[in-house]
Amino acid sequence: MAEAMGTRQRMVSWQRLATIAATLFVAACSTIVPKGPPPPVTGPAQTRPSETGPIQGGIPTDNDRDRVALLVPLTGQNAGVGKSLANATQMALLDTGSAKVRITTYDTNGGAAAAANRALADGNKLILGPLLAEDVRAIEPIASRAHVPIITFSNDASVAGDGVYLLGYVPSQAIDRVVSYAQSRGVTTFAGLMPNGLYGQRASTAFLRSVEDAGGQVVSLQTYDRSSASVSTAVKRMAAKAPYGAVLIADSGATAAMVAPTLKKAVGMDTRLLGTELWNTESSIASKTSLNGAWFASVPDELYRQYAVKYRSRFGAAPYRLSSLGYDAVLLTVRVARDWRPGSDFPQSDLRDPGGFSGIDGAFRFGRDGIAQRALEVQEIRDGRTVVISPAPTSFGK
After folding, report:
1. Which of 70, 68, 48 has the alpha carbon at shortest distance from 326?
2. 3-state DSSP assignment of residue 198
3. Residue 67 above 70 pLDDT?
4. How far is it, in rounded angstroms, from Cα 75 to Cα 73?
5. Fewer CB within 10 Å of terminal CB in the chain, N or C?
6. pLDDT at 45 over 90
């Protein structure tokens, strides 16, 4: 269990960025939508940087701070992501200079339910995390009984609602954004290449709905099990109904790049390839020449790139792309904490501001279902770089 408290510190160019990000918690955002490529991780992230102030044993006795629990894996298979999220929350406390919020980090690798019980026993009134949907399901009944809301980093929409707020990037929003953009550029016929499994099922449902809403037509929808033979068979079936204006590949950028040459040869070199939010998290996506000309939806990257530089400077390693969720969760908490009396229940109603909020990952707002609706941009892979071809809305409701 690691303890971190916000202290004031002078920032150079980043201080202005942090101020902008913090004050961006104002109303407004027009479309829905998520994000772009991360730098590679070059080493293990630290979870207790000296800049955050002294680390204290146990829970401090002061009662003048709002207590927040961060539940992430600090050991085990997902420790790298968890530590990067923890580092990001500490950065956000420093950058905001908040003296009202105290964040205590609990390792979920030994069991999310046990971590949640410790967090509640320690008096925390808000939970940030966990990372995995199964961990959210494990702690939801515990947090609900204590009237403590959860802001999770998961992207599984099925865990949202009833006091659980989903901050992760939801696949359906990215698919809807890129399909809508393609339709606006004259694409009317679509095909989809979907992996078997839960992600593929959800992507298929979102794809069919998005194309229908855009007034287009899904001519072919093929599935595969990620073996080369299965992919080859799916591409052959797709070729039988070609040509199409665009084909959505609902898989990682690496898989899409591997499939792209065969797919384009089968369905037509002029077919536009579309990607999902999975492409956001791949730092090498722009270098995949077979995806040149492909479009995908992403949360805005401008502030993230500046954040990544500062993170690397402080921790000596590149952040995981998802770590920005930890930073933005703290910005959100600090914003709400202005009217949050220490020791009292977290004011959940403040999370439902229809005007929305903003942070490193751009504008977002929580819907009635507890899912963060995000303002996404559309990027094109072009000659070894990604280019924004449709900027993200800066606010909701316009």
Report:
1. 70
2. helix
3. yes
4. 6
5. C
6. no
Model confidence at 5: pLDDT above 60: no
* Distances in whole angstroms, Cα of residue 195 to Cα of each of 192, 248, 256, 333: 10, 11, 11, 37
Length of the chain as a residue count: 398
Measured distance CA(288)–CA(253) in Å, rounded: 8
pLDDT, tens digit, for every residue of 143-182?
Answer: 999 999 999 999 999 999 999 999 999 999 999 999 999 9
Which residue is listed with tokens 């990372």? 131
Cα separation, 300 vs 395, whole angstroms: 13
Number of Cβ within 10 Å of residue 214's Cβ equals 18
13-23 and 323-337 helices, crossing angle to 10°? 60
CB of 218 closer than 8 Å to CB of 211: yes
Pairing of strands 66-72, 126-128: parallel
Residue 254: both structure tokens together: 């690496």
CA distance 98 to 355: 23
**What letter would DSSP give residue 26?**
-
Per the prediction, the chain carries an average pLDDT of 86
For residue 320, CA distances in Å to 236, 292, 317, 352 come to: 37, 25, 9, 28
Residue 371's closest CA among 137, 150, 45, 41? Answer: 150
CB-CB contact of 202 with 275 (8 Å): no
Question: Is 96 within 8 Å of 330 (Cβ atoms)?
Answer: yes
Task: Identify the residue with better confidence: 296 or 281.
Answer: 296
- What strands lie across the sheet with 164-166, from one edge to the other? 2-5, 101-107, 66-72, 126-128, 150-152, 164-166
pTM listed for this prediction:
0.83
pLDDT tens digit sequence for 222-253: 999 988 899 999 999 999 999 999 999 999 99
Report the interhelical angle of 198-213 vs 171-184 (nearest 10°): 30
Torsion, Cα of 46, 48, 49, 53 (10° steps): 170
Q: Residue 46: what pLDDT?
A: 34
CA angle 88, 89, 90 (to 5 degrees): 90
The residue behind tokens 């703290």 is 330
**Cα dihedral 285/287/234/251 (nearest 10):** -10
Question: pLDDT tens-digit profile of 207-223?
Answer: 999 999 999 999 999 99
| Complete domains list, the chain, with CATH | 2-31+41-169+301-372 (3.40.50.2300), 171-297 (3.40.50.2300)
